[in-house]
Design goal:
The chain is α+β, with helices and mostly antiparallel strands. It contains four helices and two strands; from the N terminus they run βααβαα. The termini are far apart.
Length: 106
């Protein structure tokens, strides 16, 4: 399976949580993010939570994860369908999977 590097904007605390949790699970960061994307059920996500918030944020850090074509397509399709950025979609997935509250300033 071919993988592609993708750049996302996420909170620094979330980035650290990914780093710690992936180490605990003996995975690299990209493999852990890939797992989150693949296992997240779209029916469990409230995409409307970003409706009243802008797409720009300066309260985030850049994170590059190498993900599969199918994971990239999943994120792109959801972003386009709901009028969100790829980073907002990933943040919603991470929030759901890691059970952390979403802060709409991301």
């Amino acid at each position: 399976m071919q993988k592609y590097p993708r750049v996302f904007r996420i909170k620094s605390t979330t980035k650290q949580l990914i780093k710690i949790t992936s180490a605990i699970n003996d995975l690299n960061n990209s493999d852990f993010v890939e797992k989150i994307i693949q296992e997240t059920e779209l029916s469990n996500i409230d995409f409307s939570s970003y409706n009243n918030y802008g797409k720009k944020s300066y309260n985030t850090v850049q994170a590059t994860y190498t993900i599969s074509y199918s994971s990239n397509e999943k994120i792109e399709a959801v972003a386009q369908k709901h009028g969100l950025t790829r980073s907002q979609v990933l943040n919603l997935f991470l929030s759901k999977y890691l059970n952390i509250p979403i802060d709409h300033k991301d």
